[in-house]
Automatic annotation (TrEMBL), chains A, B:
<dbReference type="GO" id="GO:0045892">
    <property type="term" value="P:negative regulation of DNA-templated transcription"/>
</dbReference>
<dbReference type="GO" id="GO:0003700">
    <property type="term" value="F:DNA-binding transcription factor activity"/>
</dbReference>
<dbReference type="GO" id="GO:0000976">
    <property type="term" value="F:transcription cis-regulatory region binding"/>
</dbReference>
<dbReference type="GO" id="GO:0008270">
    <property type="term" value="F:zinc ion binding"/>
</dbReference>
<feature type="binding site">
    <location>
        <position position="145"/>
    </location>
    <ligand>
        <name>Zn(2+)</name>
    </ligand>
</feature>
<keyword id="KW-0804">Transcription</keyword>
<keyword id="KW-0238">DNA-binding</keyword>
<dbReference type="InterPro" id="IPR002481">
    <property type="entry name" value="FUR"/>
</dbReference>
<feature type="binding site">
    <location>
        <position position="148"/>
    </location>
    <ligand>
        <name>Zn(2+)</name>
    </ligand>
</feature>
<feature type="binding site">
    <location>
        <position position="108"/>
    </location>
    <ligand>
        <name>Zn(2+)</name>
    </ligand>
</feature>
<feature type="binding site">
    <location>
        <position position="137"/>
    </location>
    <ligand>
        <name>Fe cation</name>
    </ligand>
</feature>
<dbReference type="Pfam" id="PF01475">
    <property type="entry name" value="FUR"/>
</dbReference>
<dbReference type="InterPro" id="IPR043135">
    <property type="entry name" value="Fur_C"/>
</dbReference>
<keyword id="KW-0862">Zinc</keyword>
<keyword id="KW-0678">Repressor</keyword>
<keyword id="KW-0408">Iron</keyword>
<keyword id="KW-0479">Metal-binding</keyword>
Amino acid sequence: MKEEKVQELLKVKLREKGLKVTQQRLLVLQALAANSGSHMAAEDIYELIREDYPDIGLATVYRTLQLLLEMQLVDRINLDDGCVRYEIGHLFEGDTKHNHHHLICRTCGKVLPFEDDLLEELERHIEEDTGFHVLDHELKFYGQCKECLSKSK
Amino acid sequence: MKEEKVQELLKVKLREKGLKVTQQRLLVLQALAANSGSHMAAEDIYELIREDYPDIGLATVYRTLQLLLEMQLVDRINLDDGCVRYEIGHLFEGDTKHNHHHLICRTCGKVLPFEDDLLEELERHIEEDTGFHVLDHELKFYGQCKECLSKSK
DNA sequence: TTCATTGCAAATTATTTGCATTTGA
DNA sequence: TCAAATGCAAATAATTTGCAATGAA
């Protein structure tokens, strides 16, 4: 749906910085845009792209993710499973800027999203109390999902 | 001050599980208790202990941290600098259970603690809305600390 | 004594880097 | 044309694991 938009934005941002628009960069962003629910590791993205474009290198995927991160087109999360994961940037997620957090089930490993805006208030507190200027945050909850809870009874 | 208490608790917990009380296990916990402000990587703990006990192996430090984590005697945080860090468990931090979060300065890398209880409410919301049972959380804020902010003006 | 624990070295795994080749502007 | 970007292979770095030796109960 808005995949062309995402790609257009990347093109604009690349040109702004004097960088080149390459197939690989478009493909990495596209892979993330097309899988906005999942949290993909660099390797996952690499395998996915290879299906249509077998010549891409893993190092390019890593370099591209780094670049997209700096451009704030993707978000990075660490689910403590030994590799860093990426998702399409929250800028694309809707009209209103919602913060989305992750609920990580310690039993089955599933990761659920949770939308909430309560953190905005906390960020104001922090700025007032400490003078620290908050730009971004990462919030994870660990526990047991509904299904695992009911199974364990 | 309460270092003996921490060690006693470890001894009790080890015996409960039928595990052995070793110098190495006591030393790892002690190193963390004695440095409750800092966030130490396994390597840091290893180097620290080696000053007094040069024969300890890095693998033992890793194995011990794993064990202490399972026993909930230490907390683990990931500051996105390529290695996992540990601090003495929040159980020891005071009488009232406060949640403590981390403010990470993107300019100088400094990590500041921030105490807050707002998350309790959010955890209740989550349980109501999704049925997910929250056991623990990790909250990080990224931005610029007071000092770096004033320097960049 | 005896099995858990340790230290060491080798293995593993995610990520980064050097460099010759390719490619977009 | 030509610097930027790529693919590959080698390098790096944190963590884990196999195993023989050691030590706590």
